[in-house]
Amino acid sequence: MRYMVMHYQTQDMEDGVPPSPELQAAIGAYMQEASMSGVLLAGEGVASSKQGARVEVESGAVRVIDGPFAEAKELIAGFAILDVDSLAEAVEHARRFALLVGAERVDVRRVIEVEDLQPRTPASGTAAGSPASSSAG
Amino acid sequence: MPDGHSVATGRTEAAPDDASGALRQGGGDLDDRVAALWRVEFPRLVARLARLVGDLDTAEELAQDTFVAALDRWSCEGVPNRPEAWLATTARFLAVDRLRRRDTRRGKYQLVAASQPETVEHDLDRIVHGDLAEDLLGLIFMACHPLLSADARSALTLRLLCGLGTDDIARAFLTPPVTIAQRIVRAKRTLAAAKVRFEIPAPSEQPARLDAVREVIYLIFNEGHTATSGDRWTRAELCAEALRLGRMLAALTPRDPETLGLLALMELHASRLPARTGPDGEPVLLRDQDRTRWDRLLIRRGLATLDRIEELGGTVGAYALQAAIAGCHARAVRAEDTEWERITALYDGLAQINPSPVVELNRAVATAEAFGPQAGLELVLPLLEDPSLARYHLVGAVAGDLLCRTGAHDRAREQFLRAAGLTRNNAERGIMQERAAGCATDHASGVVQR
After folding, report:
1. What is the pLDDT of residues B147-186, one digit of tens each?
2. I need a surface site. Which of A87, B117, B284, B368 has the fewest CB within 10 A?
């Protein structure tokens, strides 16, 4: 099963302080290590929210707000997708990552797979399509 | 993955506080955490220990002792912040202790170095801070040693590199646990008897040794991928383990085109797993698959790996060619968009470096798609005489289909019936019989099917 591991911005990241060479090396080492575990499928990091925007929709009305956003610690700084066999294993990798790169908070969430999403035969009416009935697959 | 309990239960959100008001120590109970640590650390510990003490049996035993000690300690004191460091230190302590006792017993001082081939690093401190990549690679080479039978290599690899227990391996291979346990014991004994120690083969031997490793990984993948019986979950598990091993090997030998080829091939095949079976578990042919169910992330990874192989240049091997073929299918948004001419060219290449009747049959199918049924038939007809394919129902199925499309209905019917008689799969037999009956009708009414 796959987990998305997301870490949050620190104030330094948000302020655009470039990662120290040590930190870059630490991140490189972590990626290398995770690759050698055979679990790392994808990962990216994002820049300060100064270079981003936010789209808000309220009752159908769209509002685009340019960054930066105040609450740095509420902002995602990057993600990795891990292919592991338990939440505990994903947490194990998240813990190492957090300690290595000095992240203050990392969320570990399971990725929804095709098998989780129901209907295989689209538009077969309203018949008996309880979402639970399909997960045998 | 279909294990019901974890499907969107929302367990991923940490509760801010529980009834006691104290911060909850999340990430599961101690057993879960130790199981997860086992998964990540066991191969590394065994590898490092094998390097220290030389043989797999002792290494595995010491790694297990390390975890026993950890459980013992952590159940009273809690898990430390960096459990992996604790495990490594403890494992090293146990190993040094063991070596010292061995020394004393044999009355020698410099023992470690004595009986070991040069590939083993004797300086303990250097080993302890040695390269993780080298540790793991050495362990893979040992587990996939050419002295061992294919079965033994798979079992040992799953055990040591994936940290699977005997029961897990047995379940996956639909084999009794006792058999697997014996296989592993015997494999370790064989290696010990031949004095095979932890080793990185000499550069001149590496290509052949890597071939053996890839063979083991692909065998494990196919065991899961082509499963015709058994519980689906455990079979998918085997594919997952093979992918893990393939990714591991690719990280360890990132410039080896065939390793990358194997990985790309497995990623691309795995991308179709969700579409390969219908709602009732029946197989769905590639051209009939709901391509929206294909796994986009795995496809992206597979295609990116193919690009990487191209960048590396050099000669392309059998895995890379098969991966390139899988890549053509992956790129086709609809079945009719498939670049059959390119696939045909790739099969031509594959038939040259890795000739086999099965490759030839696939080449015939691709040729027919690219250049018409007659061109395909020219390749299939000789295969009907091939004794090694005499019991292979797909030859009849393909020949029947192509004959039918050229209007030779009587001969087509004969081939469909032959295929129906050979397949062990009920659904497939039904389809073949239907097609045979269809040929009879078309023939009677003079309809030429294209």
Report:
1. 999 999 999 999 999 999 999 899 888 889 999 999 999 9
2. B117
Angle at CA B67, nearest 5°, toward B63 and B71?
Answer: 170
DSSP per residue, B391-407 = T-HHHHHHHHHHHHHHT
In the chain, the amino acid numbered B286 is: L
Contacts of B44 (CB under 8 A, 6+ apart): B88, B132, B135, B136
Residues of A in contact with B27 (CB under 8 A): 87-88, 91-92, 95
Of A89, A91, A110, the CB nearest to B6: A110
Q: Based on the number of CB atoms within 10 Å of its own CB, is A42 exposed (0-12), middle (13-18) or buried (19 or more)?
A: middle
Q: What is the mean pLDDT of residues B280-301?
A: 89
| Pairing between β-strand A106-110 and β-strand A53-58 as defined by DSSP bridges | unpaired
Output phi, psi for B354, to 5 deg: -140, 60
Q: Which of A8, A95, A108, A116 to mutate to test the interface with B (most CBs of B within 10 A)?
A: A95
ipTM of the complex: 0.83
Residue in the structure block whose two tokens are 């080479």: B141
pLDDT digits (tens, 9 = 90+) for B306-344: 999 999 998 889 999 999 999 999 999 999 999 999 999
Whether residue B199 has pLDDT greater than 90: no
B87 part of contact set with chain A, CB < 8 Å: no
At B314 the three-state DSSP class reads: coil
pLDDT value at position A119? 59
Contacts from B114-119 at CB under 8 Å and sequence distance 24+? B115/B54, B115/B195, B116/B54, B116/B197, B117/B195, B117/B197, B117/B199, B119/B197, B119/B198, B119/B199, B119/B200, B119/B201
Contacts of A134 in chain B (CB under 8 A): 279
- CA-to-CA distance for B104 and B100, rounded, in angstroms? 6
**Chain A residues touching residue B140 (CB < 8 angstroms):** none
Q: How far is CA A23 from CA A30, A34, A39, B84, B85, in A?
A: 10, 16, 22, 20, 20
Looking at residue B113, its pLDDT comes to 47
Quick count: other Cβ atoms within 10 Å of Cβ B343?
24
**What pLDDT, on the 0 to 100 scale, is given for residue B232?**
55
Nearest CA in chain A to B278: A120
Stretch among A119-123, B329-333, B387-391 having the lowest mean pLDDT:
A119-123
Q: Are A73 and A10 in contact (CB under 8 A)?
A: yes
Mutation for A interface: B23, B24, B40, B235, most A CBs within 10 A: B40
User: Distance between CA atoms of B157 and A66, rounded to whole angstroms?
Assistant: 52
Quote the pLDDT of residue B105.
Answer: 67
Rg of chain A over CA atoms, in angstroms?
Answer: 19
Residue of B nearest to A40 (CA): B247
% of residues, chain B, pLDDT over 70: 84
**Per-residue pLDDT averaged across B403-408, rounded?**
92
> Is B238:B164 a contact under the CB 8 Å cutoff?
no
**Cβ contact A135–B82 (<8 Å):** no
Q: Are B160 and B139 in contact (CB under 8 A)?
A: yes
Cα-atom radius of gyration of chain B, to the nearest Å? Answer: 26
